[in-house]
Amino acid sequence: MPAALAEVVSDFAEVDGQDKLQLLLEFAQELPALPADLEEAAMEPVPECQSPLFLHVDASDPAHVRLYFSAPPEAPTTRGFASILATGLDGHSKDDILAVPDDFYTDLGLAKLISPLRLRGMSAMLTRIKRRLREA
């Protein structure tokens, strides 16, 4: 697991209960804006997410993969999950991202606080990122 993602997992491990939700909301507020040359319409939708989420994987440089996400402000859980992936994986190599365990999100400890359906949305994001990288 890339060090940046391991640090995010560690941050969640250090807090309990409702503080985990607060940390997720903080991540939601930190989701980077899309670059000016990337429009949501050109991004891939992730229909497994309960809220609208779009992603774009730029693997033109396999040593430095760029990840972009778009989710509405009224979808803080989805934005939080996207921001965790952006924080932990953006800029890392294709091989490092492909090596991330598919169920890493279970280590965040959110299962008691977030519905399984919402957690599957995070899994779907990672699955789609990996699929795009394998196709690149």
Automatic annotation (TrEMBL):
Belongs to the SufE family. Residues 10-131 form the Fe-S metabolism associated domain. It comes from the Bacteria. The lineage of its organism: Bacteria, Bacillati, Actinomycetota, Actinomycetes, Mycobacteriales. It comes from Mycolicibacterium confluentis. This is Cysteine desufuration protein SufE. InterPro entries: Fe-S_metab-assoc_dom.
